[in-house]
Amino acid sequence: MSTEAAATMEIETVPSESKPESNPLPPKPKFEPLKAHEMSDGRVQFRKVSVPPHRYSPLKKYWMDIYTPVYEQMKIDIRMNLKARKVELKTRQDTPDISNLQKCADFVQAFMLGFDVPDAIALLRLDELYVESFEIKDVKTLRGEHLSRAIGRLSGKGGKTKFAIENSTKTRIVIADTKIHILGSFANIKIARDSLCSLILGSPAGKVYSKLRQVSARLAERF
Amino acid sequence: MIPSAMVSSTETALESLHHIKSTEPPEWLVPKQELSQAVRAASKLLFSSLKPYCPKSPFDQLLTEGFDVEQIWQQIDLQSQPLLSSLRREVKKFEKHPEEISKLKDGGVGGGEKKKKVLEQIETDNVVNDDEDDDDMDMDEDDDDEEEEDEEGEEEEKERGTEEESENEGEEKGGIEDKFLKIKELQEYLEEDEAREFGLKKKKTKAESKKEEEDTEEEGDDDDEDENEGSEDDDDEAEEEEDELGLFDGNDEEDEDDLENARYEDFFSRKKNKSSKEKAKSRDMLEEDSGSDDEQDVDKRKDGPSKHEKELDKLRSKIEEMEKANLDPKVWTMRGEVTAAQRQKNSALEVDLDFEHNVRPAPVITEEVTASLEDLIKTRISEGLFDDVQKARTSSSKAPREIKELDESKSKKGLAEVYEEEFVQKTDPASALLTFSDELKKEASMLFKKLCLKLDALSHFHFTPKPVVEDMSIQTNVPALAMEEIAPMAVSDAAMLAPEEVFSGKGDIKEEAELTKAERKRRRANKKRKFKAEAAKRMGKKA
């Protein structure tokens, strides 16, 4: 009955083409969502994350902290390929969601970029967190001493500027030579990125602080 | 004791002196032996008579035999120069201390009382004229003898003049003169007045005044002369003082000028004048001499202008005066705006100026004023009524905004934990943690405030509770049902949102059941319109 009604409605709207259907359509099949395991025709999903040399020893140190949540909670197989210097991730049969693999891969990738494990864990727990990377040369072409000075400006004395940005915007920042990585939610990343860019461009730390203060106050007042 | 020989010689000398005096001036033009002898004798006499007064003279007596005129003159000059200076000093002294003249009178100058008497006899008739005539005397001198005699006579007369003056003042005038009244000045004034009235020029002492007179003479205007004289008289009186103090040059200048202004009457009218001319002029009496001349001239001319003419002259002179005053530039007080550069120095002090004072004059501090002030101060202190400035308290109705501090150290919580907290805060408002300042601190401050309130209530007579300051509180839009649950006890009804804050809409909001038929139809029609528009858009996209 409903189909007829639907058909009539359809006929009304599209009078030109109308296939007269005598036999009713079979009911729509209901499929369960595909398991991670069954995707790509039942083949296993892999992710490989290469390990930079400077993260080798921290990886060794924190291996258990990485392994446990991935294996236990995400239900993803993880192993370290020493020869190839890569971390390999594989879905298991009981992996609940296909996105787990990606999340774990992101988590490991974040660790390789330089983030700490407790910070990177947030990637596993929250969906909306992202990692953004950019280089100093994307913002402004600096050479030699100017570059060094810019890097110094970014981190501040004892890293206090970096921490100030991190605390006020609820992000985590990693400054690796000329590359900068920011971990956090989308809006927070934006704020942090703006502050960092202004620092690269040469504004004094005090100015950036004042802006951060305003922003953080606004953020706090949201609730 | 004067030796007999000397006496006889003196007598002869005096005789010769008399003889000289009596000779007429024309006789002097031709050199005569007897005259020269007489002159020499007279000179000798004068020299020896003057010698006692002269402190350092190399000659005891004048050596005339076989000596040239020049040589005799040199001798006289040698004696006279120091004598002159001493005389000058004497005169100056008398000028300053007139009382000494009386002393002089009483005591008598040393040496020569007899001589004084003799001289008096000579001079009695010439007393007044002597003092007055001075300038004309030197004009006649062509002869050396005459000149030298005149010079001698001059010296003598000077000496005599000083003595005479004192004598005359003392004896003849008999005590009229004192500091106030001076016959000299009286005579001067009389002369000036007459000169002004009759429009005659006066003989001046200084060369400049002489020249002015010459100018006026050239102009030939009596009235102008009056003006000049009037102004010059004042100058002359001042100058006279200087002359008296001993400016010898003035005499010479005047002598030169007087030559030009000489008149017939001066020489040949009276014998008295001639003799006075011959005698030395006294420097003290310059002004009077010239004045007396004018007087004499005036006397002669009085017969000329009639009374009517005199009146006319007076009127004319007055008119001239007034016209001149009009033409001249005005006095600075009459000139309108005058700056300091356009008037004399300190001239504003002499004039009584009148101007407005914009400032109230400062109060005069008297004893009463101070006493009144002190009383006021005392009463104020006793009352305690000080006009202190009260500080205006700004009543703050809202709490100060909390400033979030930037934490510059590495956060101890991991990022996951931060977001976790955020999430929890979002979902469960009860578990909202206080973000600002230490909880302990806050607790402590709260306790203290309560304590203070209680103490104030107990201690103050007029206790006013503190105004309620709105504390910063988080208003969470949570349904009342959640609030009234068992678990969240900390949340009170006051923390809830007001209905306006929940929903602030305008217009009439109606429930489904309340809608009228027409409204329902309208609603449906709107919905259909929207759907059609969307469908059309979709068709458009596809095609």
Automatic annotation (TrEMBL), chain A:
<feature type="region of interest" description="Disordered">
    <location>
        <begin position="1"/>
        <end position="34"/>
    </location>
</feature>
<dbReference type="GO" id="GO:0005730">
    <property type="term" value="C:nucleolus"/>
</dbReference>
<keyword id="KW-0694">RNA-binding</keyword>
<protein>
    <recommendedName>
        <fullName>K Homology domain-containing protein</fullName>
    </recommendedName>
</protein>
<comment type="similarity">
    <text>Belongs to the PNO1 family.</text>
</comment>
<dbReference type="GO" id="GO:0003723">
    <property type="term" value="F:RNA binding"/>
</dbReference>
<dbReference type="InterPro" id="IPR055212">
    <property type="entry name" value="KH-I_PNO1_first"/>
</dbReference>
<dbReference type="InterPro" id="IPR036612">
    <property type="entry name" value="KH_dom_type_1_sf"/>
</dbReference>
<feature type="domain" description="K Homology">
    <location>
        <begin position="128"/>
        <end position="201"/>
    </location>
</feature>
<dbReference type="InterPro" id="IPR055211">
    <property type="entry name" value="KH_PNO1_2nd"/>
</dbReference>
<dbReference type="Pfam" id="PF22891">
    <property type="entry name" value="KH_PNO1_2nd"/>
</dbReference>
<dbReference type="InterPro" id="IPR004087">
    <property type="entry name" value="KH_dom"/>
</dbReference>
<keyword id="KW-0539">Nucleus</keyword>
TrEMBL record, chain B:
<feature type="compositionally biased region" description="Basic and acidic residues">
    <location>
        <begin position="196"/>
        <end position="213"/>
    </location>
</feature>
<comment type="function">
    <text>Involved in nucleolar processing of pre-18S ribosomal RNA.</text>
</comment>
<keyword id="KW-0698">rRNA processing</keyword>
<feature type="region of interest" description="Disordered">
    <location>
        <begin position="514"/>
        <end position="543"/>
    </location>
</feature>
<dbReference type="Pfam" id="PF04006">
    <property type="entry name" value="Mpp10"/>
</dbReference>
<feature type="compositionally biased region" description="Acidic residues">
    <location>
        <begin position="214"/>
        <end position="259"/>
    </location>
</feature>
<feature type="compositionally biased region" description="Basic residues">
    <location>
        <begin position="519"/>
        <end position="531"/>
    </location>
</feature>
<comment type="similarity">
    <text>Belongs to the MPP10 family.</text>
</comment>
<feature type="compositionally biased region" description="Acidic residues">
    <location>
        <begin position="128"/>
        <end position="157"/>
    </location>
</feature>
<keyword id="KW-0539">Nucleus</keyword>
<dbReference type="GO" id="GO:0032040">
    <property type="term" value="C:small-subunit processome"/>
</dbReference>
<feature type="region of interest" description="Disordered">
    <location>
        <begin position="96"/>
        <end position="180"/>
    </location>
</feature>
<keyword id="KW-0690">Ribosome biogenesis</keyword>
<feature type="compositionally biased region" description="Acidic residues">
    <location>
        <begin position="286"/>
        <end position="297"/>
    </location>
</feature>
<feature type="compositionally biased region" description="Basic and acidic residues">
    <location>
        <begin position="260"/>
        <end position="285"/>
    </location>
</feature>
<protein>
    <recommendedName>
        <fullName>U3 small nucleolar ribonucleoprotein protein MPP10</fullName>
    </recommendedName>
</protein>
<feature type="compositionally biased region" description="Basic and acidic residues">
    <location>
        <begin position="96"/>
        <end position="106"/>
    </location>
</feature>
<dbReference type="GO" id="GO:0034457">
    <property type="term" value="C:Mpp10 complex"/>
</dbReference>
<dbReference type="GO" id="GO:0006364">
    <property type="term" value="P:rRNA processing"/>
</dbReference>
<feature type="compositionally biased region" description="Basic and acidic residues">
    <location>
        <begin position="171"/>
        <end position="180"/>
    </location>
</feature>
<dbReference type="GO" id="GO:0005732">
    <property type="term" value="C:sno(s)RNA-containing ribonucleoprotein complex"/>
</dbReference>
<feature type="region of interest" description="Disordered">
    <location>
        <begin position="192"/>
        <end position="316"/>
    </location>
</feature>
